[in-house]
Amino acid sequence: MNNYIIMLLLYLSLFGTCSGEICNRFALCDFDNNAIPEIVLEGTHGTRRILTYHKGKIILSKSFKYRTMKTIKTDGTFEFSDGAPYYGIAKLVFENGKAKYNILCYNDLDDKEKNIYYLDNSIISEAEFNELIEKQGYKDDITWYDYSIENLEKVLLQ
Description:
The protein has 158 residues and is an alpha+beta fold. It is 22% helix and 44% strand. It has one domain. The chain contains three helices and eleven strands, in the order αββββββββββαβα. The two termini are 12 Å apart.
């Protein structure tokens, strides 16, 4: 774990930008529950980049625009939106260090433009969906820190 922290500090001190944006804050979140937290970098326009440790290296796992990864919770779940009718709750899974969505529940439109709600790809009622969204809102948010080398050292070396 110590090598991971040292490599992460070095990586962030050299490459701590968010798709050309200035990185203004960061957070730690163990999205995959492997006891090694990923780091979330957030840029000035809300772009989020996920860095993970894979096979002895720090890699950029995925970049997200703000709407596609909102309100990240300490359990690694987050809300996403891909347009007005399409939103829900997801979690990240990693395959060879690359992050992919694991969509837990979502809202979409059917071919008649009616809302349809899913949980684990099974249709549920609007009330059940709204209850899931409400419960998500009660979960604890991850802790964000202002982006600086001093804060990175303080947080990562605790």
